[in-house]
Amino acid sequence: MIHPLIECIETREEHAHRHYGCFRIGPLLPGQGITLGNGLRRTLLSDLPGIAITKAQMEGVLHEFCTLEGVRESVLEILLNLRGIVLAPTSPWVGPATAYLDVRGPAQIHAGDLQLPPSSQVVDPSQYIATLMEGGHLEIKLTIDQGRGRRSPQTPVPQSSLSELTPSLDSLGIESVFMPVTQVNYKVETQGAHENAVELIMMEVWTNGSMGPRQAIHEGAVRMIELLEPFREPSYLSPLSNPILETTQEPQGIQGGEEVEKQGDGQVDVPKVAIESLQLPPRPFNCLKRAQIYTIADLLQYSREDLLKIKNFGNKSANEVVEALETRFHLSLPGQSSNQARRL
User: Fold this and answer.
1) Euclidean distance between CA atoms 286 and 242, whole angstroms
2) Tens of each residue's pLDDT in the chain, 344 residues
3) Is domain 50-157+168-177 annotated with CATH 1.10.10.10?
4) CA nearest 7: which of 18, 22, 20?
């Protein structure tokens, strides 16, 4: 059995927020290189957590297209500069944190002027934010949070009163970029021939400086292992008990490998399966939802005549419901046998 190793070929700091690392992974069996390389690349780019500024609050600002007196940049330009600031956690992250910026002009504001919580630090203090003129004043309250990938801004509607024209303190959402890894390239090299052939992965990783390439490779590998670990001893759920499969299960009248049994009083013991499992056309499905019929158990309380009383629910819709019940669960509506369902 081949035991692959990770070898660090080179690491360097190209810039304060651009770190580079080159790694060799192998040896691997033929065909495993692209499988492992592609999976690790996608994990590095999308699954590693990071922290970033998510919201900004400025007194007197209603929207991002406002301008501030004594400030060279518009609010939109300031938000874009705040989005580009790279932050790194200094301890395990426990939740959203608050940072502050309070500067009076004349001055040029950089990321190093932020008053950050102890749990975070700026990677590059020289990152530019804004320039204040004489008499200018910029006061911002920032929210820092942890996430993965990108997060779209969520700006609430400003709360203002018609009788009070002075705007209140409003929060502006920032399109946050949490990804500590900015770029990953890899190629697969083959050494040897025929039965002695092995594959090696040459992987290049660039990070934003919030973590080094070595740490990124390590955390990416750990996350892949954690993702696949449950498949070492998989425990399968029956289709009817798995909510993920309720809308995609194959037609069958079984639950956990056995026929759906009847109770002693002749009533069918049906689990609370969503009606989505019937895979009905849009018209009957929407009619049932409007009638507050959400599960198979709810549906079996209606006869065919009761269903026809629902608004916009006609004979064709009734036939589709009856056929779906019979095909998928071997069930029929009250007062109707399976043979009658087939004749319909």
Assistant:
1) 23
2) 567 788 999 999 998 889 999 999 989 998 899 999 999 999 999 999 999 999 998 877 878 888 888 899 999 999 999 999 999 998 888 888 999 999 998 999 999 999 999 989 999 999 999 999 998 899 999 999 999 888 887 644 444 433 333 334 468 888 888 999 999 999 999 988 878 889 999 999 999 999 999 999 999 999 999 888 888 776 665 554 444 444 444 444 333 333 344 444 444 445 567 888 788 888 888 888 888 888 888 888 888 888 898 888 889 888 988 988 888 888 888 877 645 544 44
3) no
4) 22
CATH classification number, 5-48+180-232, choose in 3.40.50.80, 2.40.10.10, 3.30.1360.10, 3.40.1190.20? 3.30.1360.10
Determine contact, residues 19/209, Cβ cutoff 8 Å: yes
Q: Read off φ and ψ for residue 74, nearest 5 degrees.
A: -75, 170
CA–CA distance, 247 with 272 (Å, rounded to integer): 14
The pTM (predicted TM-score) of the whole model is 0.62
Looking at the DSSP bridge assignments, the partners of residue 57 are 141, 171
Who contacts 195 (Cβ-Cβ below 8 Å, separation ≥6)?
Answer: none
Helical H segments across the chain, by residue range = 32-46, 75-83, 213-228, 282-290, 296-299, 304-308, 315-329, 338-343
